[in-house]
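Notes, Module 5: Reading structure tokens.

Key idea: the token line is not a picture. It is a compressed description, and you learn to read it the same way you learned to read a sequence, by spotting repeated patterns. We will look at two proteins. The first is printed below with its tokens.
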Amino acid sequence: MDTTTFLVQLQAAVRRLQAAVETELASLDDFALNFKPTSEQWSVLECLEHLNRYSRYYNPALGKAVQQVASATQSTLVRYSWLGRKSITMMQPGNGKQYKTVKHMNPAGSALSREVLAEFLAHQTQLLVLLTDAQKTDLNKKAVPVEFFRLLKLGVGEALEFVVRHQERHVQQALRTKQQAVRASLALVV
């Protein structure tokens, strides 16, 4: 896929994520935001806090890469390394396989408030700016260190897609948790 189409598609995905959080999750009460379907599953706020923790790392790393990587001379095709393809495939929202997160990215048991929602939306705004700025960048340049093993690097385009797919995956998880919370609150009323 050419870089322009690639970036436009990622921007549209980020806008959908923003809209989903603003319309589906931001209006939830504290019970629904903190409801955990099981002790091992995350609440809506934990899903978003997990994404915030990744954004605290990847947004600055992507910003640095976008600033430092030479611009592409022409619109080129986005290429994938084995690591990039594997990382993105793992995070595809349709991939039902569960993966264990690294300890410092696991929000389970954290004291969380509605501020998690505002932080998530602020990160999305930053990501949209990065996606716009990336139009002037060689997206195939390996310049973004992988969070859990910084000796490995992803291409700028791979890292951008990984971040967006990861967010889609966990926002969908949060939306499923919201549905379970609504059912649980209705059961309490009856």
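Here is the second protein, with the sequence above and the tokens below, as before.
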Amino acid sequence: MGTCPAWLRSIIWCELALQVPFFILATYAFCARKNWIRMPSIAYGVHTATTLAPILGSFWLSGSGGYGKLTVAERAKLTALYLPYLVVPLLLALRMALSPEPFGKNKTKKG
């Protein structure tokens, strides 16, 4: 991590500070089928997908040095490796955005 560019280090710190706690919270919420996870899931999905833009851009748009030394085939392999980290969070955000109660109506206990 010491040799990473500053923008990548900031993304890594965001992952540690935001995404790791979200995973713990989301694991509980999804297992317990809690609808309140909807908005945090949308925020997580959009944030994660957004962080992939500079990562993928650095593979394809960098000039000489760094990622610029990669061949087109190597860039394509890296893109394929990172693509699920873009697609899955976007699908999660989309599903949660389109479903006001993703786990159905919560049943309350009566008397």
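Summary for the second protein:
- Residues 8-98 form one domain.
- The chain has one domain: 8-98.
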